[in-house]
Amino acid sequence: MTAPRFRRLALIGVGLIGSSIARAARAQKLVGSIVATARSAKTRRRVMELGIADQVVDTNAAAVEGADLVIVCIPVGQCGAAAREIGPHLPPDAIVSDVGSVKAEVVRDMAPYLPANVHFVPAHPVAGTEHSGPDAGFAELFVGRWCILTPPEGTDAAAVERLKGFWSGLGANLATMSAEHHDLVLAVTSHLPHLIAYTIVGTADDLSADLSTVTRSEVLQYSAGGFRDFTRIAASDPTMWRDIFLANKAGVLEMLNRFNRDLAKLTRAIKVADGDTLFRLFTRTREIRRGIVSIGQDSEAPDFGRPHPPLSPGPLPAPYASGED
Ligand code: NAP
What is the pTM of this model? Predict the structure, then answer.
């Protein structure tokens, strides 16, 4: 049996992402022990009941005592405050990471509170569902998904490699880029789609509030596949997404400008009955969808393949292959 990659993993926050890390790290024997904490006593109690950590403590400061890997798994707006709490208690040489969906602002918020003798390696696993809380997590969440590391310049290369090894043990593919580039890429691939989903579902709900146009029961009853997919995305956690839009303001506004320009072009095409423009775009976008399926990042299933059908074309690492949790 190979030795665990880390002696003691501390998880600050045990929601969808934190609890999935806990389940997968244990299943893959990547850590000797797991200590976890969450903001509320209710969540901490639930984590204890679920038995996904070896120890559950009441404060962020207590959680990091003796840990050689600390992963902050909380909404991005809270990361600075959490770093301030854990900073003085971090053991020398510990690797401190996070899972935030926005990187530049999280790095700016956390870095000032972390002592020089620890290694700060920010990360973002591009994997998730619209569910939250410790019950929502599952060990396979990261299998075949990308985890993007955004180590600031001068980060210890060995620490980056150790964290890569950990994520790869959870089944993820690894990429490295700057925090700023990450935020621009994710603005278009994740943040803007969520904003559009929140808008369209809000628009339909406003319409249905005005009974002279479309009723709420019509919206629910006749919800076509497209609308249903949007409602799934728009069911994502409000705190997490509020924080993402506030933290990635520049990236989202840049992509929103482009989107508005393209939407105006389509509006014009519809107005002047320019079917060629519509057809050309729809042909191009269909290819994008096919490309995503062909590289194994989604399945053909109409529920968009989440969460359980195998996403990776290759053999899964044990114990996923044997169906154990
Ligand atoms: P979640 O399910 O809502 O869980 C958040 C956890 O953080 C809860 O355990 C919560 O405790 C705890 N928490 C909140 N503030 C805290 C604080 N100040 N100190 C200690 N614990 C605190 O959220 P999630 O979906 O796992 O998301 C966590 C992070 O992962 C976010 O930064 C998000 O951007 C990122 N992310 C999410 C996804 C996704 O699809 N969900 C994907 C990739 C990355 P209580 O329950 O007691 O409040």
Answer: 0.90
